[in-house]
Write a structure and sequence with these properties.
CATH superfamily of the largest domain: Transferase(Phosphotransferase) domain 1
Largest sheet: 6 strands, antiparallel
Structural class: alpha+beta
Distance between the termini: 68 Å
CATH topology of the largest domain: Transferase(Phosphotransferase), domain 1
Number of helices: 12
Shape: elongated
Radius of gyration: 25 Å
Number of domains: 2
Order of helices and strands: EEEEHEEEHHEEHHHHHHHHH
């Protein structure tokens, strides 16, 4: 990582990874004695978002839930804090690409192609394990928290170069962990991947996330979704047209049913159905995923000027810059004062 553009607590913030409507995510590092260094991802609340109390509470809720989630298929939250008036979330750094970036790479050029079916099923199983854990999470008294991710989509699935699959960004997840309760009828999430009940602003449960995963799986297999699918339900004919094993198609149709009662009732049930149908690729799926990731060109890091212009850091100078500004101001004021004194002395000398 190049020299930091910002320091937040113990974290030296570097290159921009991604930005959204609420926050920007940067690669960062924690440096220690004798050359110790650990890469992390830092999510920084944008300047405008930090002025909204509801958004700040949502960010805090994300940190509170993230601290409770510990699973191999979920990107870990390591720390939460505030420095120089900026709220930030330190997360596990996943050395790889998002599923969204991988799919965009496959769709570029003259010969767009779907993701290898084995890799797609391997990703789906990883996300199902993450969802099963999150949906079943309980509080200290053994009561279900009722977590619903609400934003299962390619942007929020990270793929490590070793083939690890990580679900991330529980920023709009519902559940008992939230201080800021979701208002009835308020719709949040990515429209093309929403369940019909989510698009309608209705009460959600785990089956909504399974629908979103079904849409994501369709996208991996080449059937890019649209926001129109939620109004009338996902067209079964589009599933039939997918280039995938015949055994997968009825499972996709089931999880994409318009009525939640017609879908799989849990992530574990969906996962077992895939295994029972002979659709768990195992190691072959991981190797196919690694091969696909290797073909994605590494993104070019933004220039220092561009990085500083991002909303998350636009008004925050690098460490030590404030002191430099103050020193420069004192020097300028000193010159002005000296000039004023000389001018007054000159006037007196000219007086008869």
């Amino acid at each position: 990582m190049r020299s930091p553009i910002l320091v937040l607590g113990q974290y030296e913030v570097g290159d921009l990874i991604a930005t959204g409507g609420m926050a920007a995510v940067y690669r960062a590092r924690v440096a220690g004695p004798m050359g110790f260094e650990k890469p992390v991802a830092i999510k920084v609340l944008l300047d405008e978002a930090a002025q909204d109390e509801d958004t700040v509470r949502m960010f805090i809720d994300e940190a509170r839930l993230g601290a409770r989630l510990s699973h191999p298929n979920i990107a870990s939250v390591l720390d939460f804090g505030e420095a120089d008036g900026r709220f930030y979330l330190a997360m596990e750094y996943v050395d790889g690409v998002s599923l969204s970036a991988l799919l965009k790479h496959l769709q570029r050029g003259r010969n767009p192609r779907p993701l290898d079916g084995r890799a797609a099923l391997f990703i789906a199983q990883g996300v199902l394990r993450a969802l099963s854990y999150a949906h079943d999470l309980k509080d200290a008294n053994g009561r279900p928290i009722g977590v619903v991710h609400r934003d299962v989509s390619p942007q929020n699935i990270l793929l490590d170069r070793s083939g690890a699959v990580k679900l991330c960004d529980f920023g709009i997840a519902t559940g008992a962990h939230r201080v800021e309760k979701t208002q009835a009828g308020l719709v949040k999430g990515k429209a093309a991947f929403m369940s019909p009940e989510q698009a309608a602003g209705e009460r959600l449960d785990a089956r909504s996330d399974l629908y979103s995963l079904g849409v994501t799986l369709v996208a991996m297999l080449g059937g890019m979704p649209s926001s129109d699918d939620q109004a009338r339900g996902f067209d079964a004919g589009r599933v039939d047209a997918l280039d995938c094993p015949d055994a997968l198609k009825p499972l996709l149709k089931k999880t994409l049913s318009r009525k939640p009662s017609d879908r799989f009732q849990s992530a574990a049930e969906f996962s077992k159905a895939l295994v029972d149908a002979g659709l768990d690729p195992g190691e072959a799926g991981r190797l196919a995923l690694v091969e696909a990731i290797e073909k994605v060109p590494a993104p070019k890091p933004k220039s220092r000027k561009d990085s500083r212009r991002e909303k998350g850091v636009q008004s925050a100078p690098p460490a030590g810059t404030d002191r430099g500004y103050r020193n420069l101001l004192f020097v300028v004021l000193g010159f002005l004062l000296a000039a004023l004194i000389l001018a007054l002395v000159g006037v007196r000398l000219l007086e008869p």
